[in-house]
Design a protein that fits this description.
Layout lengths: L1 H14 L3 E7 L6 E2 L7 E2 L1 H4 E11 L2 E10 L8 E12 L2 E11 L12 H5 L7 H4 L9 E9 L2 E4 L7 E11 L9 E12 L2
Parallel strand pairs: 3-11
Antiparallel strand pairs: 1-9, 1-11, 2-11, 4-5, 5-8, 6-7, 6-10, 10-11
Bound molecules: 2-acetamido-2-deoxy-beta-D-glucopyranose (NAG) (2 copies).
Length: about 200
Amino acid sequence: MYPYAVFFIILLVRQSSALKYLFVPENDEFFSDCSKQPDNVLNINGLFDMSNFTIMQKDGVIQMSGNSTVIWQIHPGDRIQVSFQLFRFDRIGWFQTPFSMTVFNICPILYDEPQYWYKYWTKNIINKEDVKDKCVSPGTQLIHKPFELNLVFELTGLPLNGRYKNIVTVKPFSAKNVMRKTNICIEVEGQFERLN
Ligand SMILES: *[C@@H]1O[C@H](CO)[C@@H](O)[C@H](O)[C@H]1NC(C)=O
Ligand SMILES: *[C@@H]1O[C@H](CO)[C@@H](O)[C@H](O)[C@H]1NC(C)=O
């Protein structure tokens, strides 16, 4: 049984070559609030003070610059679990797609080069050497050089078309692995444009 399963998977991977997409955000401010959340779930403004950070859309490209300061009162040393879940709108509502990812603890890899979030975001943080060890502890100021969001993804599987939203949740856990009361939920809606 086992060797056949392996063979089948290899065959599938070889037949469906990766498709390249550009994610085009719907909202000019990029970030949206997650709908129908309880009081203990905060949005992007619960995570960062964004008053010195600008997000602009110019010729369909999102441009970001400035400073964001962590205001989320997390406990130092907490494990920060981040999950990304892609939903697709199909006539009557949002349905989860197979594209999802959970990062058990983002802090040690927040500035890791191969990661998507490094390529699109944290590589633009000028003071990364100073803040690398602080992760998202309160008061940490992330200073960005002006950058453009160019969200290119290579995905295998069914072609993507229509409206999508990515729901990002950020959840802190204590050393005893108990989830803290306050967590973050951010939504980004948009469409995927085929590049190849
Ligand atoms: C925003 O920038 C102003 C001027 O540089 C500064 O006084 C203020 O502390 C900054 N606020 C945040 C949250 O970084
Ligand atoms: C960000 O912080 C740096 C260093 O404190 C400062 O020079 C710069 O003016 C700030 N930018 C904004 C948009 O607040």
